[in-house]
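pls design
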C-alpha cells in the first residue's frame, strides 16, 4: 500500500473569536487519480489571510485549518492518469481550484485556505487542473505572489475593457493587489495615479512607474484632485480596494462611461451611495473575485512577454509565519510578504 507523505503544516485555530497560529504534523494521503503532490517552495500572504483570522471575513471557518492560498512549488509525484505535469515541474496554486474558465459558479466558488485547507504546509496535493505552470523567469518567491493578488489585479485591469494607451487608471493604496494593478495598467499603456496614506510610499510607487500620486489622508475628497489631474475629464478606471469611504469618491472621480473594478473593503463594506452618480456617469461597475485558470494562463503569458517581476517587499522563513502575519497587519512594507520554504 502506498505510504502517506508526512509533512508539517501551519495551522490556525480560532477559539472564542481569537486566532492562534501553530505548527503541526500532517499526513497527506496517497495520491488519487489525476492528483499531483507539490513540494512547497514559497507561500505569499494576502490581506484576506489576516482578515479571516480577525473574523472580518465572512468565509472564516469555525475550525482549525491550514491557511493561505498562494504557493509556488515543485511537482514531486503524480497520480494515475496525470497528463499535464511531471516531477520537477514548477507550478503555482489556483485560488479557486475548480474555476477553470468562464464565469465563477457556486460549485467553483471554493477558495483555498478558507473552509478548505490551504497551502501553508511543506507539501500539498492538488487536482492536476488546479495548478498553473510558474513563469520561468520568476523565482519561486516571486511566482508565489501570483495566485491571488496578481490574478485579481490582472482581472480588474485587463478585463475592464478600458485600460489602454491614453487612458488613466487610479489604484487605491500601495498594497499587494494595487501594486500589481499599477504594473498591469502600465503594461496596457495607461497612465497610472496612485493614492496612499504615505508620501514615502507614493514616492516608491513613482519608482515603480506611477505617473502621479494623491495622499488620501491629506485629501479625503481625493476625487477633486483626480479630476484636476485629468484636466476635468475624469478617470477611465479605478481599482477600488477601500470600499466604505472610497467607493463614493471613485464614482465622482471616473469619467462619463468610466469603470470601477470593485475588489476590496479595507475601510469597510457598507456606505450610502447616491445612485445618480452611477447612471448619470454611465458607470461600469464590475465586481472581481480573483480569476480563473484561463485568466491565470493569459496573465503568465503577458508576464513572460514583458519580463515583468512582481514587487516583493519582505521574505521570511516559513517557520516565522507569525512574524509575517504581524508585518502584514502593520502595513508598513511596500511589496508582497512571502514565506520561504527553503526548497531550491
Ligand atoms: N475580490 C477579490 O478577489 C480580492 C482579491 C484580493 C484582495 N481583495 C481585497 O482587496 C483588498 C486589498 O487586498 P491586499 O491583499 O492588496 O491588501 P494589502 O496588501 O494589505 O494592502 C493594504 C493597503 O491598502 C491601502 N488602503 C487601506 N485603506 C485604504 C483606503 N481607505 N483607501 C485607499 N487605500 C487604502 C493601504 O495603502 P497605503 O499604505 O499606501 O495607504 C494599505 O497599505 C482587501 O480588502 C482584500 O480583501 C479582494
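designed seq:
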Amino acid at each position: 500500500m502506498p505510504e502517506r507523505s508526512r509533512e508539517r503544516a501551519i495551522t490556525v485555530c480560532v477559539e472564542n473569536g481569537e486566532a492562534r497560529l501553530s505548527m503541526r504534523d500532517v499526513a497527506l494521503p496517497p495520491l488519487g487519480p489525476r492528483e499531483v503532490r507539490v513540494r512547497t517552495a514559497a507561500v505569499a500572504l494576502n490581506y484576506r489571510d489576516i482578515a479571516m483570522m480577525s473574523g472580518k471575513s465572512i468565509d472564516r471557518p469555525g475550525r482549525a485549518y491550514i491557511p493561505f492560498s498562494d504557493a509556488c512549488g515543485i511537482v514531486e509525484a503524480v497520480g494515475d492518469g496525470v497528463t499535464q505535469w511531471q516531477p520537477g515541474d514548477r507550478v503555482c496554486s489556483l485560488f479557486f481550484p475548480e474555476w477553470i474558465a468562464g464565469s465563477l459558479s457556486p460549485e467553483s466558488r471554493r477558495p483555498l485556505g478558507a473552509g478548505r485547507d490551504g497551502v501553508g504546509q511543506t507539501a500539498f496535493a492538488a487536482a492536476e487542473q488546479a495548478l498553473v505552470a510558474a513563469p520561468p523567469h520568476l523565482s519561486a518567491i516571486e511566482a508565489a505572489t501570483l495566485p491571488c493578488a496578481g490574478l485579481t489585479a490582472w482581472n480588474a485591469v485587463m478585463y475592464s475593457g478600458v485600460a489602454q494607451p491614453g487612458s488613466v487608471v487610479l489604484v487605491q493604496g500601495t498594497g499587494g493587489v494595487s501594486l500589481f494593478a499599477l504594473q498591469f495598467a502600465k503594461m496596457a499603456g495607461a497612465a497610472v495615479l496612485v493614492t496612499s496614506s504615505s508620501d514615502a510610499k507614493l514616492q516608491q510607487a513613482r519608482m515603480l512607474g506611477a505617473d502621479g500620486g494623491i495622499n488620501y489622508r491629506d485629501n479625503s475628497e481625493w476625487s477633486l484632485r483626480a479630476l484636476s489631474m485629468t484636466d476635468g475629464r475624469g478617470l477611465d478606471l479605478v481599482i477600488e480596494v477601500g470600499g466604505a469611504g472610497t467607493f463614493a469618491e471613485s464614482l465622482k472621480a471616473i469619467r462619463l462611461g468610466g469603470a470601477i473594478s470593485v475588489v476590496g473593503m479595507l475601510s469597510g463594506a457598507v456606505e450610502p451611495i447616491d445612485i445618480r452618480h452611477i447612471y448619470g456617469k454611465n458607470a461600469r461597475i464590475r465586481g472581481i473575485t480573483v480569476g480563473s485558470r484561463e485568466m491565470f494562463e493569459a496573465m503568465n503569458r503577458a508576464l513572460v512577454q514583458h519580463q515583468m517581476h512582481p514587487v516583493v517587499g519582505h521574505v521570511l522563513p516559513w517557520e516565522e509565519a507569525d512574524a509575517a502575519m504581524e508585518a502584514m497587519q502593520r502595513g508598513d512594507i511596500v511589496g508582497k510578504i512571502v514565506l520561504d520554504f527553503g526548497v531550491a
